[in-house]
Every structure is written in C-alpha cells, then in structure tokens.
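Put briefly, the fold is written as integer tokens. The lines below illustrate.
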Amino acid sequence: MTNNRRMRHGGRVLALSAAALGMVAAMAGPASADDQPTRAQLIADCDSGAGKCTFNDPELGQAYLGGFHRVSDSLYNCSTSSATQSMTWSDTVGSTDSAGVSVTAGGKIADIIDLSVTATYSHTWSSSHSETSSVNMTVKPGEVGWISRAQVMQTVSGTWQTHYDDRKWGHYFWFVPDVVTGPAPNGTDGRSNAVVVKSRKMTAQEKRSCSSRSGRARTFVVHG
C-alpha cells in the first residue's frame, strides 16, 4: 500500500513537471536526448497496447461553439426569381490531440479517455459526433447557396501515463501531457449547435454555365 501511495504521488509530481518539460520519465536517472521517446511514439504505444496507459487527472474545459464549415451540396439559382429547395446536410466532427493528430472513434486512445472522463465526471466522452438533417434553403437569383454548421466543442486535458513491463528507453514509466479537443453534447455549458444558410453571388464563369444549360433557366445542384 505504501509503495502504491509513493507511485501515485510520484506520478502527480512528474505530471506537473511534464507541462514544462513536455515529457519526463518516472524513474530516476539521466537519459540522453537520443534515449528518450518522442511524444508520437508514446501515444502510438498507448494506441497499440504495447504500453499500459491511463489518462490521469482529466479536466474538462468550458464548452464553446466551433467554426462554421460547409455540410451540404451547393444550390445554384439561374432563374430570375428566388428559389426554395429542401437540401439535405450531413456532418461528422471528430477529435484531435494537442499535436493535431486525429483521435479515432472506437480506438484504444478514445476508449481510455472516455474511461477516465466517465470515472471523474460520471458522464461519457465521445471522440466524434455525426448528424444528418434537411433545411429549406432559399437562394436569390444569380446566387449560389449552401448550408454550414458549427458544433459545440470542448477540450479535455490530462497526462498520459505509459507503463512498460520491461524497461523501454531506460524506464518503466513515461508521462506526457495532452489536450484533446472534441465534440460536446448540444447544450453543454449553455452552448448550442448552429446550422445556417449561406450564399454568395455567382462568378462570371458560373453565370456562363447557367446560360449554357439547355432548356429554360432553372436551379441546379453541384455536389461537393
């Protein structure tokens, strides 16, 4: 029991140092830069199971509304009056870590973070969110419209503890701080997802495309 307390205490001290040093071994003794793993190597060992990993002391940040991004096809209005059409949109928002690496839904890393957040906050954490719906979109003549969406996002910060059965890079334990940004449930901290219709004037080339279309002027959809 005493040894366990010492190990936990040592982990907390090293985690604090890791914020400044970026990475630190949990065992005493100097190591050259060549002997130290990269952050990517440690996370890869967590993901593959080569190292036994936990995500310690998770802290959820304040939820915020992420940036708007296009989630639908484009509707071109080549007619002389406003056109309204039902447009389907689909969106999937994932998670990334502090190095900008994707945290894959259903992967070992995502499962470890979820386990840690659930134990601390008594609610699950999801590395991705998918949603599909439709909107009646009105586009003025000579314009092109599309649907954009913004997802409620939230960060979770913590420290990865990687434990090896045999010494690796000279140590049994390594610690690395991390911040993961991912989608949060709608309504978290009073923030709500948003869906908006956006439009712009057609370019000269797009207008020429309208005039070259056979038959009377009308609307058309361009995918992507």
Summary: The two ends are 59 Å apart (CA to CA).
